[in-house]
Amino acid sequence: MATVALLGAGFIGNLHAANLAVHPHAELSWVFDPQSELAKLTARKYHGIAASSARQVFADPSVDAVIIASTTDSHAELLDLALEHQKPVLVEMPLTTSALSGNDYVKRFTDAHLLAMPDLCRRFAPNYIQLRTCICDDSLGDIELLQISSRGISLSPFENYGHRQARLRERLFHFFDLATWLLNSLPVDIYAASSRLENAPNSPINTCVATLRFANGALCQLDASMRDGLSYDERVSARGAFAAAETQRGSSVALRLHQTQRSVKRYVDADWHERITPIFASSLEGFLSALESEETPPATLQDAIVAQVITQAFAQSLTEERPVPFNWNNPLGLSVIKPDFLDARHTA
């Protein structure tokens, strides 16, 4: 039985706590959040113990692993504590506030031979796994176009500007990772554009599009909006040389495959919370399996850095209003890149 502590008692932290509470081979121990009442509520609900500090959590020798589900600006301090106390971690994304600082942790965790898995949760969604299988087994032929659409509820006007922008970037981060994972390739360049569809002065970006060209010849078109007053939604479609496949609205387990004179649909409707809870459970299972087997986890810190580099290039393209090319030997000023940075999962 693995004893797992939780740092961060917000929405995602509570998803992890709920999954730990029903896991047959893991149990929740400490819960820490700077807002102590949140930590107490989560601990009480899921049979954990509220901690007074993150250091108290990491210093406990009975803790086998730690889930970091706190705000991104707190990750560096918590990753330092994990290294200091040799605790394996499952960490929410982005890894840190920049690709440069994040890449430093790739090296430090690698040198320490310590498990650190980024929670790239969309890799664990059944419909995306099916879609990737269709792409990788050549069911669709050479992929010509990958389209990703994301819709989210409007950003709260009560959040500060920086927080609202960060939420949009963090959402894009996951879709950039999804694109590289689905296509099994790295982008050559990216061009981005955005709109501010609010009348208030200095309102944040809430709608954007990005076009990426990949090394394997595929194009990816991503559009995202946080102006939807109805619900959260995301759809992904891949069009190949002789077939196409698309995930379906409102489900994490639905995929429609289009072939010549034939269309196959698997669909199970579910609301957003019902869709995302089992995805996080699968991600947790992948982490716990890697913890037990001491093998490479299904998502690595290098995967997270790739997505963060793309996200930073997206921001650069918006600012400079031009396409931004990638140099994966030294992407966007990163000075330390491991020789195996372009591993098999990211080779065109």
Describe the structure.
This protein is α/β, with parallel strands linked by helices. The chain folds into 2 domains: 2-92, Rossmann fold; 136-272 and 300-325, Dihydrodipicolinate Reductase, domain 2 (2-Layer Sandwich), CATH 3.30.360.10. The protein is built from 9 helices and 15 strands. The chain has helices at residues 11-21, 36-46, 54-59, 75-85, 99-111, 126-136, 161-183, 272-293, 301-320; strands at 2-7, 26-32, 49-50, 65-68, 89-91, 116-118, 143-153, 187-195, 207-214, 219-228, 233-240, 244-247, 255-259, 262-266, 324-325. A hairpin with a 2-residue loop joins β13 and β14 (262-266). The termini are far apart. Residues 172-325 form the Gfo/Idh/MocA-like oxidoreductase C-terminal domain. Pfam families: GFO_IDH_MocA (PF01408), GFO_IDH_MocA_C (PF02894).
Q: How would you describe this structure in keywords?
A:
348 residues, Rossmann fold, Dihydrodipicolinate Reductase, domain 2, 9 helices, globular, disordered C terminus
The major sheet is characterized as: 9 strands, mixed
Q: How large is the count of helical segments? A: 9
Any idea what the CATH superfamily of the largest domain is called?
Answer: Dihydrodipicolinate Reductase, domain 2
Taking pLDDT < 50 over at least 5 consecutive residues as the criterion, the unreliable ranges are: 334-348
What is the fold-level CATH name, i.e. the topology of the largest domain? Dihydrodipicolinate Reductase, domain 2
Query: How many E-type strands?
Result: 15
Mean pLDDT: 85
Please state the second-level CATH architecture of the largest domain.
2-Layer Sandwich
Count of distinct structural domains: 2
Strand content: 25-35%
Helix share of residues? 25-40%
Question: Alpha-carbon distance between the termini?
Answer: 40 Å
